[in-house]
C-alpha cells in the first residue's frame, strides 16, 4: 500500500501488512506539532475466548473507501486545524501481533490530535462495514458482537 502522492488524506483497505511506520512518517507535517497514531493489533484473547490464534477480516469493499473518506471529512469538519488523516484497515487473515487498523492524525496541537484520532477509530468501528472472525481454543465465530452500522452523521 503506497502513500498518496498528493493530498492530506490517506484511506484504504488492503490485504497486505499495514505500513504502520510509513503511515506515521507520512502524517507528520512541519506546521503540525502533534501526530497521534493508533494501531489496533490482533491479540491472543478476547472476552470469553482464550487462546485466540487467528483473526480474519472481511469487508463490503465497495462501501469502505467512500465511508472512510466521509469519516475523514467529518473529522476535518469537527477539528478544522487537523493536518493529515490516515484511516487504513486490513482484510484477510492476520496473525497475533499484526496491525488490523491504523488511524493517524496530525494537528498543530496535541489535544486536537488525540481527540480527532480517538473519534476516528471509534467512528470507524461503528460505521465502516468490516467484520471480524476470531479463531480461539474451543471455537470460531464471525462477529459475536455484531452491531448496527450507523451513518457517520448519526454519531452526533
Number of helices: 3
Q: What is the CA-CA span between the terminal residues?
A: 32 Å
Give the topology string: H per helix, E per strand: EHEEHEEEHEE
Task: State the shape.
Answer: globular
CATH class (first level) name: Alpha Beta
Structural class: alpha+beta
Strand order of the largest sheet: 1-4-6-2
- Radius of gyration from CA coordinates: 16 Å
- What is the count of β-strands? 8
CATH fold-level label: Aldehyde Oxidoreductase, domain 3
Commentary on this structure:
This protein is α+β, with helices and mostly antiparallel strands and 156 residues long. The chain has one domain: Alpha-Beta Complex (Aldehyde Oxidoreductase, domain 3), CATH 3.90.1170.40. The protein is built from 3 helices and 8 strands. The strands form 2 sheets. It has a 4-stranded mixed sheet with strand order 1-4-6-2, with helices on both faces. A 4-stranded antiparallel sheet has the order 5-3-7-8. Helix 2 runs antiparallel to helix 3. The chain is globular and about 50 Å long. The model has no long low-confidence stretch (mean pLDDT 91).
